[in-house]
């Protein structure tokens, strides 16, 4: 905070002698103040409160001291050694991921698994790591809503709302126009930048009402049918869930990573709105471990 304090001191002195610039200087002063990691985390949690996370999850702070100043944030879906090295190179001391690096717990921190190596690398370089996972899925305007927004859908509501109205799972809404199924599948490929989609057909010849869940959403297929969706779109669907839906609903799976790619846009929007001066960059690393040929 040395620089921050110095600016504060200089500007407060200056404003005594040039009061006509008082307002401008207060703004400048605000812009120059370095954020603490804690404040960045609080802004994320204001949007996606941690209590909204699923019981099996481990969203929240993974590594770091939140009282430290934040030099900038690097956004990603998954934390890998390549992402941590990118943060180090770019001088950003906070990584914000969608998927928690620490999920099942560690019994030792050696260098056998990529998780252990990431922990060691991050601590060695004083990089903090935070994950906004199912709390970001389940919050209002979260991950699935962001997917629906990319498809210009309207009349959005939670597919499975929580009883207290604080959030829910998935989203259901209406496309901007009715599509034939194959037109829509082509459209989905272009919007989400994928080369192929897994799908199973159904009897509907026109699709307008669509249910969506980012990531692994097959637990919501039944609910999408109950809500009258023509198609259910998610990241991945277990093989056996594709069976027996030919009279109910079209099913489409984009790939887990591909379905959540716009989550980074969402996180960037939240942070740049709250902290316009904070460097917030999207990772240039493709962390999807799955390849297609
Ligand atoms: Zn996911």
Number of strands: 11
Q: What is the tally of helical segments?
A: 11
Percent of residues in β-strands: 15-25%
Question: What is the CATH first-level class name of the largest domain?
Answer: Alpha Beta
Q: N-to-C SSE series?
A: HHHEEHEHEHHEEHEEHEEHHE
What is the architecture of the largest domain at the second tier of CATH?
Answer: 3-Layer(aba) Sandwich
Give the SSE layout.
Blueprint: H1 2-17, H2 22-32, H3 37-47, E1 60-63, E2 73-76, H4 81-90, E3 94-97, H5 114-124, E4 128-131, H6 134-138, H7 143-150, E5 154-161, E6 168-179, H8 181-192, E7 198-200, E8 207-216, H9 221-226, E9 231-236, E10 250-253, H10 256-260, H11 263-274, E11 280-282
Parallel strand pairs: 2-3, 2-11, 3-4, 8-9, 9-10
Antiparallel strand pairs: 1-4, 5-6, 6-8, 7-10
Helix pairs in contact: 1-2, 3-11
Zinc ion (ZN) binds at residues 99, 215, 256, 260.
């Amino acid at each position: 905070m040395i620089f921050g304090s110095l600016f504060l001191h200089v500007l407060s002195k200056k404003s005594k002698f040039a009061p006509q610039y008082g307002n401008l200087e207060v703004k400048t002063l605000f812009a120059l103040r370095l954020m603490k990691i804690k404040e960045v985390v609080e802004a994320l949690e204001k949007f996606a409160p941690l209590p909204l996370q699923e019981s099996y999850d481990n969203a929240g702070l993974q590594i770091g001291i939140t009282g430290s100043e934040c030099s900038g944030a690097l956004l990603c879906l998954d934390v890998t050694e390549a992402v941590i090295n990118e943060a180090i190179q770019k001088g950003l001391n906070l990584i914000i991921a969608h998927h928690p690096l620490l999920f099942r717990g560690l019994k030792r921190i050696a260098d056998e698994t990529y998780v252990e190596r990431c922990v060691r690398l991050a601590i060695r370089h004083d990089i903090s790591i935070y994950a906004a996972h199912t709390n970001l899925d389940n919050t209002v305007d979260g991950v699935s809503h962001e997917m629906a927004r990319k498809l210009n859908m309207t009349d959005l509501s939670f597919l499975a709302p929580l009883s207290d109205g604080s959030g829910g799972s998935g989203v259901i809404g209406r496309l901007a126009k009715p599509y034939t199924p194959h037109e829509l599948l082509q459209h989905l490929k272009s919007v989400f930048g994928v080369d192929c989609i897994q799908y199973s057909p159904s009897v509907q010849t026109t699709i307008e009402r669509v249910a969506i869940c980012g990531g692994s959403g097959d637990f919501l297929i039944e609910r999408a049918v109950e809500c009258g969706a023509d198609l259910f779109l998610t990241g991945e669907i277990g093989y056996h869930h594709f069976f027996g839906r030919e009279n109910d609903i079209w099913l489409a799976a984009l790939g887990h990573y591909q379905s959540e790619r716009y989550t980074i846009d969402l996180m960037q929007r939240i942070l740049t709105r709250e902290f316009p001066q904070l460097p917030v960059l999207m990772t240039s690393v493709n962390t999807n471990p799955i390849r297609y040929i």
